[in-house]
Amino acid sequence: MAAAVAGAQALLVTAPPGPGGCPGLAGLVPALARARAFPDWTGYLSTTGVYGDRGGRWVFEASPLAAQSVEGARRVSAERDWLQVGRGMGLTVAIFRLPGIYGPGRSAFDRLRAGQARRIASPGQVFSRIHIDDLAAGLEASILRPRPGGVYNLCDDEPAPNSEVISYAAELLGAPVPPEIPLSQAQLSPAALRFYAESKRVSNARMKAELGWRPAYRSYREGLEAILVAGG
Questions:
Q1: Closest Cα partner for 181 from 173, 169, 191, 192?
Q2: What is the mean pLDDT of residues 145-173?
Q3: Average pLDDT over residues 151-171
Q4: What single DSSP character describes residue 185?
């Protein structure tokens, strides 16, 4: 690991934290110290789940963190630990809070084709998302303009309910639109129930202002259309 990081200009940490914290810290920090390596940029992928439920209101990077799940609380701790490591070791660490990620092979189309798509009615529930290409472009923008301690929401411009996304994807495919199912009757897993317990609109204004980034797919509509054109 020390040999690998010795010549690295950028490090991206994507592993989710476990009960013992971020596995990237345990593996990378000692290696960086042994190699006396100082990459130009280290990015940590977190989640917008650190904000918890905001009743559909907008959240910004400076909004208080109020994670409602164990997984979200671990992300909060991992963010804090990476920022502390950055300050302590003189590393340029940036944190990216991500919503739901979609793209070719991972979209509403795939669930519809598999007969697994469901439109769950949860009045007032909205969430943000990000196309995988826009995610990659956002990380590249940060690599080109590194800022120590930068924290960014990386998402599209238009939060929307999941049922709306499924409906639009079905229309694009020419497939029947699945009927809505009340949340109380959906028999969701505990993880899915945690998801539907939170509603917020996530602002990407800082990404645009500081890094000059703009999403190529401003909403799920443009993103889904591009996936379908590409054969996804």
A1: 192
A2: 97
A3: 97
A4: G
Backbone angles phi, psi at 106, to 5 degrees: -150, 70
Q: Which residues contact 110 (CB under 8 A, 6 or more apart)?
A: none
Residue written as token pair 């109020």: 66
Question: CB–CB of 166/118 below 8 Å?
Answer: yes
| 184 vs 120: CA distance, rounded Å | 9
Class of domain 2-229 as given by CATH: alpha beta
Contacts of 232 (CB under 8 A, 6+ apart): 103, 104, 105, 107, 109
Q: Where are the domains of the chain?
A: 2-229
The string of pLDDT tens digits covering residues 203-213 is 999 999 999 99
Stretch 17-36: mean pLDDT? 94
State the Cα–Cα distance between residues 48 and 156, nearest whole angstrom. Answer: 13
